Every structure is written in structure tokens, then in C-alpha cells.
## 1
Amino acid sequence: MRHLITFVVAMAVFCSSTLAADRTLNIAATEFPPYYGKDLENNGFLTEIIREAFERVGYDIEIAFLPWKRAMEGTKQGKYDGLYSVWRRPEREEWSVFSDALPANELGFYKQKSKNITFESFEDLKPYTIGVVRGYALPPGFEEAGLKTVLANNDEINLRKLHLGRLDLVLIDRIMGKYIIDSKLPEAASELEWLDPPVHIDIQHLVISKKITDHNVILEDFNRGLAAMKADGTLKAIMAKNGF
């Protein structure tokens, strides 16, 4: 009887994997180096984690790298099966289901080293002009503080403006900010610095569009693959290989 149960379970897993393997998911993403990006090795370490998690449960994925707004709208409409990475917000739960936790973002500010800027609350930042990226979710309390902000299409533009003195602060992920400065603005490396403390730590997620009929099945499968990677140390190994 035990052998029969084992056989049935094994066949169920095999059939599930076979069905999944016959399907390729179209996943949207944007440029968010070093986490993910079209021209990064393996499309970035977060892409490597997501691809591996899907492969473990029998899915192939094709990634469309798009501007953030197009990626999000396309996923809302079901043009793409899923999107990464996404911070959990109530309005986003209306059109998507969220995966288990992926590596977190530390959100905060970069500034010019020559400027003596400190803060304990957002209220302390009212004298300053802050660069933010159009379409990005803002940390809790930021928008309500009524701060002076300037919109840009991407983080690199904001950091260049900061280096030129056109902004006082840039709201950005800490690791991403360091990556952009080191790889694209090395002349600014000695002049720009991270301002402690981070204002928010947000967990990243893969989301699956609710427009996709079996969105819950896809999500459960992905979470299974991700859990296996966490359990056997593969996720940590991928991050360590990339210096995190």
C-alpha cells in the first residue's frame, strides 16, 4: 500500500510538472539594476532567482523588459502573466496576487557629501528638493508630508541631477544607487553618499495578474520552487555570487 501511495504522489508531481513545462509564461519587468535588467548577466540576480524557482516546478518564462508604467499596465490587463518586482500595496492587490518574499529593498536618500543634511522625520526635509521616479511607489508618510519633489523617468537621471546640484536628495534603493554611481557615474563616487537611516524597507514580490484564469495555481507553483531554493541554500548562493 505504501508503494502505491508513493507511486501516485510521484505521478501527480510528474503530471503537474509536465503540464507546466508545456507552458511558457510571459513575465514583465523593468530596468532595476543590479537586481534585474536586460543587459545584466543572467538579467540580474533577482531574475536568476525567479527563473530558477519557476524551472524547479516545470515552467519556462520569457521576460519583456519595459518602462515601469507599461509593465504594470500590461500586467493589470493580462497582457503579461506576471510582473516583478512589486512592493505590496492595497491598490495593487486589486489586480494581482503576491508571491512569498523575495530579497528586500532598502529605500532612502543619496545626497552630496558636502551638504550637511540630517533628518529624524519627513518634516525635517521640507526645505529640500527631492528627486523621485515617475510611477514608483512612495514610502508610507512621504506623500502626506507635502515635500518638494521633482519627477524623472529613471534613477540615473536623478543621480546625475544630484551630482550637478540640481537636487538636494534622491529617493532611491540603496544598492541600486551604489550600482548606478559605480558603473555609470564613477566621477561622482567621491561626491555622493547614502544618508542613513533608510526610510523604509520593502519586501519585493513577483505578482501574477488576476486576469490570468489559473493565477493562484501559478503562484502556488512559484512559491513551491522558491521555498525549495531557500531550503537548500540556492537563493543565498545566488545572492552571494553577486556580492550581496
## 2
Amino acid sequence: MISRPIAIALVIAGAVVIGGGAVLVAGHLAAPSAEQTYHACIDGLWPDEDDARPRVDACSKALQMRWLRPDEVALARLTRGVARTMLGSTIASFEDYREALKHYDGAIDPTHPDAAALFRRATAEHGLGLTDRALADFDKAIGLDPKNHMAYLGRGALLAQRTRNYRRAIGDFDRTLQLEPRNLTALIARGDAYSQLGEFGRALDDLDRAVALEPKHTHPLVVRGLVHSREGKPQLAMQDYDAALRLNDQEPFALMNRAALNAGDGKHGLAIRDLDASIAANDKNALAFYNRGYAHFSLGEYAAAIADYDAALKLDNDMGLAHLNRCLSRVIAGDAGQDALAGCDTALKLMPLSPDVRETRGFVFLKQGQSHKAIEEYNAALAINANRAQALYGRALAECRLNRTDDCKQDKAAALAIDADVERQFKRHGVD
């Protein structure tokens, strides 16, 4: 009834990680320290998980110096937005993308657009979730500069992340690698896309190559671990997360993904230890708080779980699973006020097609003695997937309370045939 922990690879989060940066106009900044700070912000590749925090700091200092031209402010904002996205700070990154987009909307001449400016505007649009606009700008940038590997990579990431069009995304990653064969990010992104299609052999070929290209870089190992996990090989995934943590024992996403494996295996104490370390390294990642909330819930530590879900929602109020699990935690903890139930309603608005939402809402109504409403929710879950043991068992309990004895027996038998442990799960939370 509670939604499971989430493992994530940074390559699929928010803005694309690609080559970019800009060359400063010589002599514009008055003080060498200001020039150096601006260069530390924008030069080279977009920020990745290894340098996101210092890049945020450099960009913030550069923006505070107030020496920058409007186009430099926009690029510093855009770079900081990407860095904040890499840290999981979606609310703060949204502001940066929005301000960058305002500049590019005003600066780009629609009759004579510049490919680099179109590419940067597309990156800001991607970060804001403006998928159609971003795709159109990437298309235009590629039309103006067909050899711009960054635009192909950006468009591929957009297609993979926002539209889940993995096959077309792979075509863009192929083109990126034709233009720049050793592009680490393209290899990682293509490997991730192949894994989403279930083509694990191709995925691992790319990620093995990425690991070989950068053996001291944690990111390929983290993503390869995620692919192994999708493949149903948690032991290999754990080996990759452990290898990443030998390179950097504070790598927050390796810690978080290892914790997700441990939590899924019932090792909640180990999961909390890793998540404490992940949050200490990066306290802007909503998913880390969500996963720690799951682990605390599983140990019956409901106050701690609610606090973690609160923290996750402060960072990302659109996280439907956090709304859902906080609602459930409050109900089980006996804190079922109107605000608690509103969280279950919010989860349904954010994830209307999720059977987990319907199943959890069914349990909440069952816990509150609203049998008819519980059956409605369980029916909705079973309409999506007829073989959900918890939905069948929960519906059975509601039917028993309504004296629908035959229906109750039939649903209980079906639920226990799917999961012999389902009865214990309900009794654990005081429902039988």
C-alpha cells in the first residue's frame, strides 16, 4: 500500500548535461577576480554531478558582482539552473530557467536567429518542461548548424526524458557520437535509452565503454548500476554503486540508489544510513528525503517518515508519491485530519492513472471505516491491473464489513493465491 523507494540516475533528471559554456568577451569585466568567477561558472561543459555545487557557488558570486551584460547574466542563470537541477533543487532551478528564457525570448531575432542562442533557449525551455517549444528550438538550431553535437544531444535528452521517445532519442545520440565519438554523456544517455527499451545488451555495451573511458568518474557506474537494477540483477547494481562510492564515498546518487536496493530488500537500517549520508552531501534532492521517508515508514517510525515527506514536498511539491505516502503515514499514525486526506486527493490529481494511488486511497478509506469508498478505489486499481493482491484483499475486507460474504471469500482467496503474505501486511497496520 505504500509506494516503493525510487532509484534514479542523474542523466535522466531535468536539464540535459552537455557541452556548452561561452567565451567571455575580452576586457569586459573590470576586475580579474570577477572574470575568473564568471569563467568558473560558465566555461566548458554544462555542470554534472561532480561539479554542480561549486558551479552553483561560482555562478551565484558572478551574478552578485553585477558586472555582467544581459547575455552573460542569462548564460550564468542558465548554467546555474542546470547545476541546481543536477543537485535535485527543482524549485530554485525553475527560477533560473525562467529568467534565462526571458532574455533569450527578447534577444533572438526570429528573422535571423543564432544557433547558439536557440540551443540555450531550448535548454531553458527543457528545464521548464516546455517540451514542444524546446523541441522546435532544438530543431531550428540543428537546421542552422547540422554539426552542432550539443544540439543533437540536447534534443535526444528531451525526447527521452519528456516524451519517452527512446528510439528517436537514440538516433540523436548516434549523431552526437558520430560527431564526437568519445562523448561520455552521449554514451551514458544512449545506454540509458536502450535500457528503457529493454535492450540491455546494447545498453551495457555503451555503459561499459563509458566506464572504460572515464574509470575514475562515478556517473557511468551509477547509471550502469541503474541499468543492472532494471535488468533484475540487483547484485551487479550493488557492485557498481559500491565501486562509485570507492571513488567518492559522498557521491549522493550512488548512496541513494544503494539505499533504494537495500530498502527494497528490507534492509531499512542500512538504507537510512546511506540516505543520511546522501542528504548530508546534497540536501536539495527531494527523492533522497522521499526514500528515507519510505524506510522510516517501513520501520514503523511514522513521525520521522512524515517529516521526510514534508521535506521532500518543500523541494518538489509535484511529487505525487510523497503526497500519497505522507497521507498514508498520517492516517496510520492517527493524525488523519483534513490536511492528511487532502494529500491523497493531490496524489490522485498528479497521478490519475496510478494503481498505487487508488490502492493506497482504498486502504485509507478502509482504515477509516468507509467501506463503500474503499471498494470504489480498489475497483479502480483492479481495473488497471486485475492481479494486485493488496487491492483484492482490501476489497475483500470491505466486502466482509458490508456482509457480502461470498464476494469476500472469493477476493481473499484470489489475493492469497497471488501473495500469501498479504494478510499479514494489513494486520500490521491494524486492519483485519
## 3
Amino acid sequence: MNDRTFVPPPHSSESSASSEALAPRQPWRAALMSLVLPGLGQLYNGEVNRAIWFFLVFALLSVPGLVMVALWLPTWATVPALALSLLASLGVWGLSVVQAWRRAGALADWRLRAWQFSGLYLLVLLVCDGVVLPQLILQVRATQVEAFRIPSDSMAPTLRRGDFLFADKRYNRPGAQAVQRGDIAIFVYPNDRTQYYVKRIVGLPGDRVEAGAQTLTVPPGQVFVLGDNATSSKDSRQFGTVPLPDVVGRVRQIWLSWGDGGVRWSRLGLTPQ
């Protein structure tokens, strides 16, 4: 009799479990996830550090990058810098998609890690797309810079209907530039606090100004505003003076201007005075 030890073949259930543990990454799925949110496809591929960096670079180029363009660069550089910022953001986004696709194709023998489940991907998407980016945008718009479109000709010829401009939201804040006569300011419309108006400040508290047939004194804590196009402007002559806390921004520069004939190229980068 042969004394060799008999070794039974592997149990079929063990083979099945080993096979189920393999989870090859699907390139189309990785690319689609990064298309929805830069870095999400990298997370699907198990590249946590790379996922974080793709998202951070995209977010920083998209939002704080706009602040640098609007507030810190010379006005002549506004339009080309905006174009470069947009191209850079799209480039990072596209690179995230391509990298996720290529990396997923090389992970044919990938085994899922404990944290890799669909609920986590959805949570990351909701937090980044629904909380982080919106809050970053809201913070920038509230305290740094905000974009506005001019809907009327009440400030013509300084501002024209179809001008798109940046407003400096650091204006009229403690430690920042104080309101001055001649400033073109953004303020909350007194008769509808859901709207913003843009007019020129012509009277500070204590100033005597002419309003129609009267001469009046601007009350404390208020400013008197007028439109440059006096015959076609609703301003302090109709709705009265504006509380200083409602003055929320100062016009900085025009970054796009669109009229009946298309783009008004000569107005791009102008700093209204």
C-alpha cells in the first residue's frame, strides 16, 4: 500500500469565494464618475490621495482663482486670465477623466477594499457637490467678489445694458475701503430687498443735495444715489436715500459685454469711472 498523503482538492465554495473577491475596475465607470466629479473616478480606483488632489485643484482653480482674477490682477489682464482659468479648470477635469479611465483598465485583478462601496461614493458626491463647492462659492460671493449683469441703461454711458461686471464685495466693510462720493456702488434696492441696484453715490451723510425742486440733507447713516442716465433712472429721487449697511459692493471691471451685434470687444476689461 502506498503511504503518500492524500490532499483533497479545494472545496468548490472556497474557489467561488476567491473568485467573488476579485472586482476588476470598469474603465467606463471610472471615467463617468470623474466626469460627474473630478477625483471620484480615482476614488473608485482606490487612489484616495490622487482623488483628493484632483478635487482640490479643480475647486481652487474654479472659485478662489476667480477671486485672484477679479481683485488682484490688473484690469487689462482680466479677460485673458479668465480664459486661462477656465481652460485650466477644464483641463484638470478632463485629466481626471482620462487618468481614471486608463488606471481602471490596468486593474483587472483588483480586490475591493473594505471602504469601497456605492454608499461611500454617493456620500462623497453629495458632500463635495452639495456642500463644499456651494459653500465655497457662497463665501466668495458674500465677502470677496460677485458677478452681475446690467439689465438696463440707467447708468449709460458708463454702464450699458448687457455689461457683465465684477463687484468688489470687500467694499464698505470694517478695515476696507470706505464709501466715497463718485463710487459706482451695488446696493440692496430699498423697495424690494431681493434685488440689487447699481448707481453712483453722490451724497454722503450730512451732504446737501438737490432732488428735483428741493434741497435736502442726507440723513446720518444714509447715502444719496443717482443714475448717470438721469432721464431714465430710478434712484434716490424716487425711493429715497439708501442705508449705508445696504451698500454691498463697488463696481470693479467689465469682463464681458453683449449687445445686439454680439460681443462688444472694446468694453472688455474696462474699469468704469
## 4
Amino acid sequence: MLVVEDDRDGRLLFLEWLSDAGFRVEQAHNGLQALERAIDLVPDAVLTDLHLPGIDGYELTRRLKTDARTTSIPVLAVTGYGPFTQDPSRAERAGCDAVLPKPCDPEDIARTLNTLIEEARGRRPA
């Protein structure tokens, strides 16, 4: 699991929640670092904020979904980002597999990630 969150406290909270839920978690603090880590690690899923410095979560997702090395990685966006609330379909158009608004419930995050990972495994060739 790769967690992408520029807010240190928020990132640590996601890391704690996901670790407690049984995920092995890596982290990135911006979109460019996340893209590099995703290519190197090929995680089972990416949890990303949409409002990030440099390349935002929308662009990160677009790049992940258009790169053959990372296209099958499910992306869960978590956001309190204002423009998202005005146009929630923007995340879907960028390629996000699911979106949860902040504040998020840890159980909702874990459940959504497990569902996305299982769906992705079902799509991958054997």
C-alpha cells in the first residue's frame, strides 16, 4: 500500500490506520515522489490525497493509469479538497477507482481498499 499525503499528521494517521488493518504501508509526501515510488514498488493500491504540491492527485492518478507498469494499481482518493466537492466526477475522469471525502472513517478506508485490491486481482491475467 502506498499512502500519498502532504500533511505529515494526516499521513501518519493513515499509516497507523492502515497498519492496524493489516496493510504493509509505504509513504510519499507529494505526487512526484509517489509516482517514482509506485513505479519502483508496484503496490497493491495507492491511497492519495487529491490536493498535493507539484503534481496533484488527479495528475498522479492519470500518470499511474497511463503507464503500463502501474496501470492496474487501484487508486483510492481521499480528499477534503474544495474543487472536488464542486465536480466529484473529475476524480473518476482522472482514473480514480474510488473516492472518499475527508474526514474518513478508518473502517471505510480499509473496506474500500480491500474491495479495490480484490477487484484488481480479478482483472489481472493469471
